[in-house]
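Work Package 4 report. The design task specified in the project plan requires that, given a folded chain encoded as structure tokens, an amino acid be chosen for each position. We show below one input record used in the internal validation round.
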């Protein structure tokens, strides 16, 4: 099956919500997407469509990152979900690669993700790049990818703050 990656549209909302509720054991990620959109913190949302159905979704939200004493344009990847019947077919890879390319084109310097290092390393994410940023998610699963040709902001690392909607993620 051929999959097309495209920006999410308003008409995709019910399918996105259903996919997120099916892909995760709790409705927290579906609620997160709703809050990010309502609060104006959604930077980019892509869907993968195959045979007329949404089979994957990737979202990037606004972050406040301080590095070298200045604000650095940054985004957070998550959630990322693929329909169970389409996992292992490159859907998530296509979504992440397309999104990172679009973010780089928009001038984003750093992209953070909280997830499995074995999966996200293929896209250039590394825990070493995220280390040193003050974040409630700091640890081996908080990773960053340097966009803009791999340019890393100079100076001491400061903070990496996710959008406020993430604080309520565990409350759903």
């Amino acid at each position: 099956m051929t999959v097309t990656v495209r920006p999410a549209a308003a008409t995709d909302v019910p399918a996105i919500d259903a996919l997120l509720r099916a892909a995760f054991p709790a409705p927290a990620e579906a609620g997160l997407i709703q809050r990010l959109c309502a609060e104006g913190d959604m930077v980019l949302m892509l869907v993968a469509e195959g045979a007329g159905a949404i089979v994957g979704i990737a979202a990037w939200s606004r972050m406040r990152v301080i590095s070298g004493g200045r604000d650095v344009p940054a985004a957070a990847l998550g959630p990322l979900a693929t329909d169970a019947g389409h996992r292992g077919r490159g859907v998530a890879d296509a979504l992440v690669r397309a999104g990172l390319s679009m973010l780089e084109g928009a001038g984003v310097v750093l992209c953070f993700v909280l997830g499995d290092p074995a999966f996200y390393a293929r896209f250039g994410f590394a825990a070493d790049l995220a280390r040193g940023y003050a974040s409630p998610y700091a640890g081996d699963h908080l990773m960053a990818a340097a966009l803009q040709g791999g340019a890393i902001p100079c100076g001491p690392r400061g903070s990496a703050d996710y959008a406020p909607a993430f604080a309520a993620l565990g409350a759903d």
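The domain at 4-167 is CATH 3.40.630.30 (Aminopeptidase). Validation will be extended to a larger panel in the next phase.
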